[in-house]
Amino acid sequence: MTITKHAALLLTTLVVLTGLLNAQTSRTIKTQVPFEFVANGESMPAGECTIAVAVNGRTLLSISSGERHAYVLPISDASPNARKKTALVFHQYGDQYFLAGIKRENGSGYQLAASTVERELQARNVTWQVFTLLASAK
Prior knowledge:
- This protein is an alpha+beta fold.
- The chain has one domain (about 25-135).
- It has two helices and eleven strands; from the N terminus they run αββββββββββαβ.
- The strands form two sheets. Strands 6-5-4-1-11-8-9-10-7 form a nine-stranded antiparallel sheet. Strands 2-3 form a two-stranded antiparallel ribbon.
- The chain is globular.
- It starts with a helix and ends with a strand.
- The relative contact order is 0.19.
- Residues about 5-25 have low confidence and may be disordered.
């Protein structure tokens, strides 16, 4: 074999292995969100929300709702109390909702950093509550 053929074979092998790795470490979470919300500072419309979880050395959440899209580098959040269903966790301040985390049925999950607007609401001591919305994971 020539060097070009070796390089092509190596490149093909790397592409296939990368695809297999991503297939093994990616998961999708879907749910209908009945309200507008903020994810990583991005306003997201009500409707079907899809969250793709990709782990390639570091976890990345790709959040889509309607035509809007946000990427988030979450903080891993493991809980000893495993949930029966996957759920999205929102912080609700009046009629404003902020995606704050994801709880997985296996006890793992993710926390999202508060946006600038949410931090301002917290600084003003605005009353808030936790709103949990069940989701399906594939």
